[in-house]
Amino acid sequence: MEKVRFVIDGKEVEGYKGETILQVARRYNIFIPALCYHEEVKPYSACRMCLVQVKKGKRTRLVTSCDYPVSEGIEVTTRNELIDKCRKVVLQLLMARCPNLPKLRELAQKLGVEEQPRFVKSNDDCILCGLCVRTCEQVVGVSAIGFEGRGFTRRVCTPFDEESPQCIVCGACAVVCPVDVIPIEEKDGYRIMPRWNKESKLIPCPKCGRLYLTEDQLKFLREKTGLPEEELTTCPDCR
């Protein structure tokens, strides 16, 4: 792969053509906050927390680092007065929308951000990062959930708030949620996802007996892969 050399916060770093600033920064343990980013899905640049300043030639501008491709010779600044001000406003708005999320408060403490009284508080718990929606579509491949509404009424839900036949209760959405607000529970041989009004019976691994995947997952994987059921239900530890 073609190597690309550039500078982050005065430090010379090396990336590869096609990578983003955020990817390279994380490899070098350079902190850039990001709430809507996950390496397994396409960048969405929804939360705007990953803003950085890029100098390319004589031009300097703010960009979202999660989807800005690296190029030879650029100079990246991850923190300055302007960047901190932008992140502060974004985080304060999120904290007003979702005032009871520990993950947001942890990030605010790390960045030195306090709540802003002028923003009217709501009582939501979803920051609308879209990670669950994109993971369900791009990684799992079922599109069981999606966005509904616009503006301040926008939310993530199943179609018509009913039990979605497409949902395979895999739990991928819960895993990627950056603020941990998609509950998942395994009880009495079932995996339950109350946010999506869905539950599915768990199938035991034929070798060790550990409850491994749901009936809906098994049906989906069998149709997609055509592999024998025993192979699909065998847990990773027993393969």
Give the proportion of residues in helices. Answer: 25-40%
Write down how many β-strands occur, each being a DSSP E stretch of 2 or more residues: 11
The shape, in one word, is globular
Largest sheet geometry: 5 strands, mixed
Q: What is the CATH topology descriptor of the largest domain?
A: Ubiquitin-like (UB roll)
CATH class of the largest domain: Alpha Beta
CATH structural architecture of the largest domain: Roll
Sheet/helix structural class: alpha+beta
- Biggest sheet: strands side by side, in what order? 2-1-5-3-4
Q: Uncertain segments of ≥5 residues (pLDDT<50)?
A: none
Radius of gyration using CA atoms only: 21 Å
Number of helices: 7
Number of domains: 2
What would your notes on this structure say?
With 239 residues, the protein is an alpha+beta fold. It has helices at 21-27, 81-97, 102-111, 131-140, 172-176, 215-225, 229-233; strands spanning 3-8, 11-16, 51-56, 59-64, 75-77, 146-148, 155-157, 185-187, 190-193, 198-204, 211-214. The strands form three sheets. The chain has a five-stranded mixed sheet, sandwiched between helices. A four-stranded antiparallel sheet has the order 8-9-10-11. Strand 10 and strand 11 (211-214) form a beta hairpin. Helix 2 (81-97) runs antiparallel to helix 3 (102-111). The two termini are 33 Å apart. The mean pLDDT is 95.
